[in-house]
Amino acid sequence: MERIPILRMGSFLLVTIQVDLYDRLALTLESDLVQAISKTGAQGVLIDISAVSIVDSFMGRIIGNIASMARLLDAYTVVVGMQPAVAITLIELGLTLPGVQTALNVEKGMQLLQSRIQVTASVEEAPNEDDDAGSPE
Amino acid sequence: MERIPILRMGSFLLVTIQVDLYDRLALTLESDLVQAISKTGAQGVLIDISAVSIVDSFMGRIIGNIASMARLLDAYTVVVGMQPAVAITLIELGLTLPGVQTALNVEKGMQLLQSRIQVTASVEEAPNEDDDAGSPE
């Protein structure tokens, strides 16, 4: 197992983590992912952790790093498929995954990404919305 | 690693194989997948093997089994993301993955599935097309 595959689905990238992230694998994933975002112009990254039964502080940090890097390249990151037991353990360990959005499954994650991208696009398209108060749209 | 996650994406299911399929894991995958098809009514299964560097006769047989089982439940299976080296090795070993369709990546696999489902639907909607010869549609 040399690298975790990154699948392109429309304007999103999907990463399914099925193995324990050790140091080199995590670095490879970070580097592969930023390159993939840059190459494809992806607007969102979905990280599926439904096969992960333990999220420790290392993995939490890697996920946080990925989200921050993706944000710098104008892509949002959503972590999907967290097992209930993982959520319990994370909070018991005091890890709240700051800066990382989550969704129950891939479909809901995609909806979340799509709504965020639309919000961003509409804000960018109408920067003087406040001046327009009262006009119907 | 107890089971390979199955992700639902619209009317398709996506399975990313990242580890060697040993006997019990393969059986679990088969059973999980047919249950997921039955539960979700999925019309297509995408099996991503981009992280697999060796496909031997065992794995070829498992993929063939999955495709046959899915077909019985009215779902098509497409294997996507095969590495060039894997294609070379498969043919050198005399394994041609009979009954299994392939596509270059997930996006092309989804297009293939969508076109197959549309063809099937249009054939089912117009069973007496031959009697209608000459009428414009």
Write the layout of secondary structure elements.
Two copies of one chain form a homodimer.
Chain A: E1 6-9, E2 12-16, H1 23-40, E3 44-48, H2 57-72, E4 76-80, H3 84-92, E5 101-103, H4 106-125
Parallel strand pairs in A: 2-3, 3-4, 4-5
Antiparallel strand pairs in A: 1-2
Helix pairs in contact in A: 1-2
InterPro entries (chains A, B): Bact_StressResp_Reg (IPR051932), STAS_dom (IPR002645), STAS_dom_sf (IPR036513)
Pfam family, one (chains A, B): STAS
Protein name (chains A, B): Anti-anti-sigma factor
Can you characterise this structure?
The structure is a homodimer. By secondary structure, chain A is of the alpha/beta class. Chain A has a single domain (about 5-125), classed as Transcription Regulator spoIIAA, CATH 3.30.750. The first copy, chain A, is about 45% helix and about 15% strand. Chain A has helices spanning about 25-40, 55-70, 85-90, 105-125; strands spanning about 5-10, 10-15, 45-50, 75-80, 100-105. A 5-stranded mixed β-sheet of chain A has the order 1-2-3-4-5, sandwiched between helices. In chain A, helix 1 runs parallel beside helix 2. The longest helix of chain A has 20 residues, at about 105-125. Chain A starts with 5 loop residues before the first strand and ends in a 12-residue tail after the last helix. The model of chain A is unreliable at about 130-135 (pLDDT under 50). The interface of A and B includes residues 7 and 50 of A.
